[in-house]
Specification:
Helix content is 32%, strand content 17%. It is an alpha+beta fold and 832 residues long. Strands 2, 3, 6, 7, 12, 18 and 19 form a seven-stranded mixed beta sheet that branches. The protein has a five-stranded antiparallel beta sheet with strand order 14-13-23-22-21, sandwiched between helices. A four-stranded antiparallel beta sheet has the order 24-25-26-27. 45% of the residues are buried.
Amino acid sequence: MKLPSIKIGRTTACVLVVVIFFTIFELQLFNWQILHGETFEQEAMSHRTDAVEISAARGEIWDRDGNVLAGNKIVYEVIYNALYMDDSRRNATILEVIDLLVERGEAWRDILPIELDEQGNYRFIEGQEDEIEILKGRDFLNLADYATADECMQELAKKYRYQGYSKEDTRTVMSVRYSMTKDGFSINDPYVFATGVSSETVGVFGEYASQWPGVETRVNVSRYYGEDGSLAPHVVGYTWRISDKQLEAAEESGNAYDSETNISGYKAIDVIGTSGAEAAFEEELRGKRGLEAVFTDENGSVTSTATTIQPEQGHSVQLTLDSDLQRVANLSLEKNIKANKNSGAKGDRRAHNCKFGAAVAIDVSDFGVLCSSSYPGYDLNRYYTDSSYRTEIINDSEMQPAYNRALQGMYAPGSIFKPMVAIAGLQEGVVDDRTGLYPCEGMFDFEDLHLRCTGIHPWANVYEALMYSCNAYFCELGLQLGIRRLDAYAEYFGLGELTGVELYESEGIMTSPQEYRERHTDLGADWTDGNTAQTAIGQADNMFTPLQLATYCATIANGGVRLRTHFLQQVTDYTGDELIRRYEPEVLKDAVIRSDVLAVVNNAMVMTATDGLASSVFGNYPVPVACKTGTAQTSGLTWEEGGTEENITFIAYAPAQAPEIAVAVVLEHGSSGNYAMNVAKDILDCYFGFYTWDEDGNRYDQDGDMVDDEGNVLKTKEELEEEAAAKAGTASPAPTQSPAGVGGEGTAGEEPTPSPTPTPWPGRGSSIPNTPYTGGNTPATPAPGEEEAPAGDAPTPTPGSIPYYYGQATHAPSASPEPSPSPPPDPDNGDG
């Protein structure tokens, strides 16, 4: 019998082919995964390669003499390495690790902005609003702004599968998990539990290596800020974890991390210069990561490593800062501010609210900043390592210790503005040096302006007007010059202008009709001649930073040529052996002031020191000093009437005939007295080597004897050496060099004449011209502006975890909110 033929259609044939194919594939998968899965897994693991990044040390920051202001030290860290982590025990391991760290007194990274109060309830930590916003944000918990701390913790517990445990344990584990997520924890980026742990703790963790897979210790580098973290915190600045805003900026500029094209780019766990020189020179300081291949066997053990991209250490930055001068300025500011507030001296009025001040010194040769002190300050090392201290500094809204008053504070200058007005008047031919301008009887009366003078000066000429700070003379001179020319000269000398310094600075305000109308629109006021008169004595709306005042003083000392003010001296390789670039001075403005004009103003400022208002402090100073005092009104009311007291200001340069250093000092609400002059004198004493101070506030003369403020010997050099030897427990004397550093005690406001022993400088009158300058004999020039490490042996680190760092660099020397503007002054008040 003939069998019937079976016809299979195309569709059926295709289906059969597909079924057969997938059946064979499933059988093969069963063979690979079930029957021989372990064999294939071991074979795959035997060829595993992971890429591990090698960190590079950040460059250091030094002062002009090579002293470390920001450096690196070797530290031990406890980390969580994803290469070896047991995911099933992650939360349990975290809790055990933190418990051990706490038991051993080690600080662990805790950034969760939620804490347990005394009643055991969750609450947000004050002062961490930014972190709270991130926690609640769309990219993390995605909770409403009004979500409570309890609600945040509930969501965290759900997210990280840690529910049903005690509140304390939950907070601990959630803090670490939150931080790990923010850091981008991965195979390439181990998580750091704690840094700076002791070598003993490292040894203890070694005993738990088998119990906690992935938990390891390693050697790394950590930032520290010199032996004295309070020396120059506002200048040096600090590094911190990169913010979301900074990371976005890095992405926009092409500087963000990319595992394929830019492994040195910024990523979420990086630190970045956040303020001061750390931020200003970020590009030079930041190193470049390297890359290492890590090969493992079938058991996951590392068999070998190979560096594929060599890391590069950051460059080191040398600043113009002089640590000795900086320390002197810090201690002298503190001493004089406290003395001024606590008691008056020699008839000075007590300053009721003198709490703040700033001092800046500039090298006249190139306008490098020698010191830049802002009081009060803070300790960078504590700020960097102590979270409680850091919160205290950030939340201190009254004293604002983190606020850089030297570069950002803006103050009415008062009479230190007058030398510039004198230069403008002489240069423009408006006045000569011997002619009086106004019959000063203790007042200046002009239309509705009735301004008290500092004394009675009859027909004072420019010498007398500067020596005794005659308001009447300079009000009249300001009226004859006009605001247009005053503005032009202010620009030449850098007042109300950015100095060009690398760090963040305020621009300041040089008053003008346009600026005045913009600032006083609510008053409906327009510019008057009375405003011009007050501008000429450093009042009206004039507001300048101490840095600008020092730059202005240096510009006078430099013959009217203003250079760019700077902190950078040079950039070298990490060790300091190779020069990368050196700062080159840059001329910003040249007022082209005639030498006879400069001679007149220089001589008048010298006379201010020897016979004028600064003679109580500088009358017998061994180096000729050119200077000007200032008292600037800050309120239309007196202290008794509920107003604020005057700022006291001072500028000086020395030696007067061959200037090397220019100084500006501002004491906020200092009222009156010698206090600002005392600060400048202390800086000059240190600069010229007359006195040195140690860190304990003891003062020493050139012979190495400890002296008081009057120069009287308290302990001889020999006595000090005997004390040092006895303290050291040896009969041999201490080294014979004079103590270095700064300090000093005594009553501020009664600063006596020092008793220095150096060879005197040439007589102060040696450059006074025999023939007086008379502006009338010289044609007037066109008005400017008419046209336009811990102890102990280091542990064996995980391969690839050692930073590219050779240890301490060896080198030899070869670099807040603005204050509210003060209201217009009372025209009946005087100005010194």
